[in-house]
Amino acid sequence: MERVLSSELSSHTGERIMMAGWMHRIRRLGSGMVFVHLRDRSGICQIVVEASEAVASIDGLLVESVIQVEGTVVAEPQAAGGYEVHDPSFTVLSPVTEALPFPINKPVINAHLDTFLDNAMIGLRAPSKQAIFKLSAGVQHGFRAVLDVKGFTEVTTPKLTGSATESGATVFPVEYFGKKAYLAQSPQQYKQMMVGVFERVYEVAPVFRAEPHQTVRHLNEYVSMDAEMGFIKDHTSVMAVLTDVVHGILAYLSEHYVKELELLKVEMPLAPESFPHVYFPDAQQWIFEHHGEDCRAEPDLAPQHEKWLGEWAKETFQSDFLFVTGYPMVKRPFYTAPNPEDPKYSNSFDLLFRGTELVTGGQRLNKFEDYARALESHGMTQEAVAGYLEAFRFGMPPHGGFAIGLERFIMQLTGLTNLREAALFPRDMERLQP
Question: Whole-model pTM above 0.85?
């Protein structure tokens, strides 16, 4: 027999079929009847065990034992999915005879986060945890689908580099055949160079940041969904594409991940056709006027400021997304283009999602002489980024791009309280296992 999945039972009513998966739950009744819930990649189905020999064949097995079942599909409106399997015979493929570190067949996993992460290879089997990472896969697919239609080419850039991309203080050094290399903080320089090749590129890949953060919204390794595009007007061109990307991701999830969204009780975000935007100095002035906190001399927004702005955007514009544009040049990397009408501020932006920074992006410099001045003002040498600068000696169009933090997107979408819950095997200052 060919294996039948839980989601396919409706097509086999009255037939004798074979299934295989994990024993998700066992419920024994006083009458001797046993209900076994079998979990496979498509879901969970109920198996009704009445014959004494069938009961005996699974006696002593604990949950997560891997079993193969042959039985008859019966329509049963009260069963999950409307179908169940009767008259089963079992083959045990891999028995489990010891208790799990914590139950994974409950609607909510009651385990301390560190305990869960120590045992993630087991805990991730829980349907609620699977749903998080299925949504993560859907976000990546939606991201790619939108940009493919817009003429972007997917690229894969090196994760070992000879120099720091952003700042030497936040890199992980690596011994590289007697030389020093670094784990890539970003594909920034490479994706800019590729604008000179393909005009429009994107990448979905891990990046590494050595910041000594111990917060619920930072990781030292995360997945960045990057895009870069040439022949733009300014940063607003990038913002328009990013808006389309966010809409496309949400639409893809709504169409293809209904079960996961329902299981996690996800409230889909308010996402108007155009996202509201506020200029950075105006945002600071609004914070001062409405919350009495004077941050007008600060070069960046604090998490609480982002939260207040997110609440304002939702109440005023019915939007869970808000662009903050024009961050001070002193806070942005050397390759950022200034606002020609207000050079202290940049043609850059952050996109806040439910009051938390989700995306950073903007317009880049595109002329070699501008890079020479920018590097000098940042105390950097041309030799340190010589290969990168070559692209600008030989003609680069006005361009810009953005980077979305995948785990942060999932965290804000699903209402998780810690970014580590959105990473399969998170890496932070303390964790290198499993």
Answer: yes
